[in-house]
Design goal:
Length: about 260
């Protein structure tokens, strides 16, 4: 289900590269509600599937609500200023501890809750929800055998990579619909060209992203993730893992050691 949802979500971002669209001021204003309506059944199905298979219980759902509220409260602290986003490191750590299904749902609910709190509801919201869901899901799919300092380094590196990927996706959702994207310090064309070959438009989009967001917003987000995971990551991981022992999240539990006979 997560694979199908991810493929459908990727098409929601990339379809303007596959067909001819005309730039306009409405951008995704007309189809964003349908994207949002499409996400909701996916979340319900994922949660019901986890519940029916024993992957989540009532305590896990309560933790989902708590972490969604925490992320909603954290996000206004940075509000995206200079790329500072205080919500993604929690997604990475929670997805790592509780698994890909939990991370996927948490990414969606966190963005939705924070949008309600900050009045950030708009055509961009469904795409932010999908991008955040992939961050949480990807963290849950990282190798489980990595532990200790190597695990922390892996999560920090993952946080940096997904910061740039999130910026890439959030540029892709609106780039084909804007006009006059050219900048004075680059001689080539970086605007979407309706009907151009996919690789030509993709090249223009990559250049557009590098010139307009990679060195600024995306790098600020990457630094925030890196610092937050390295500084508070060990404590947050320990807290979440302590909570995970009392609930079911669909992850294999470590064997309980047997009492040794007294010597």
């Amino acid at each position: 289900m997560l694979t199908l949802a991810s493929l459908a979500g990727l098409m929601m971002f990339a379809w303007p590269l596959l067909v001819r669209v005309e730039p306009g001021s409405t951008q995704h204003g007309t189809d964003a509600p349908f994207v949002f309506v499409g996400i909701l059944p996916i979340l319900i199905i994922v949660v019901l599937a986890e519940l029916s298979e024993g992957g989540m219980d009532a305590k896990a759902l309560a933790m989902l609500g708590v972490l969604s509220a925490v992320n909603a409260a954290l996000r206004p602290l940075g509000a995206g200023t200079a790329g500072i986003e205080t919500v993604f490191f929690v997604l990475v750590l929670a997805g790592r501890v509780f698994g890909p299904g939990f991370g996927f749902v948490l990414g969606c609910t966190s963005m939705f809750a924070s949008a309600l709190l900050t009045a950030g509801i708009g055509p961009w919201l469904p795409f932010q929800m999908l991008g955040s869901a992939w961050i949480g899901m990807g963290a849950g799919l990282l190798p489980r055998r990595v532990t200790g300092k190597a695990e922390l380094a892996m999560l920090a590196a993952y946080g940096v990579v997904v910061a740039y990927l999130f910026g890439f996706l959030m540029n892709l959702w609106f780039w084909p619909f804007i006009t006059g994207a050219e900048v004075s310090y680059y001689p080539g064309q970086i605007s979407y060209v309706p009907g151009a070959p996919i690789w030509d438009n993709l090249h223009r989009f990559v250049v557009f992203t590098v010139l307009t967001s990679t060195a600024g917003w995306d790098t600020g987000r990457a630094i925030t993730n890196l610092v937050a995971i390295l500084v508070v990551g060990p404590a947050v991981l320990a807290t979440l893992r302590r909570a995970s022992r009392k609930a079911s999240y669909g992850l294999p539990r470590p064997p309980v050691p047997q009492n040794r006979p007294a010597e």
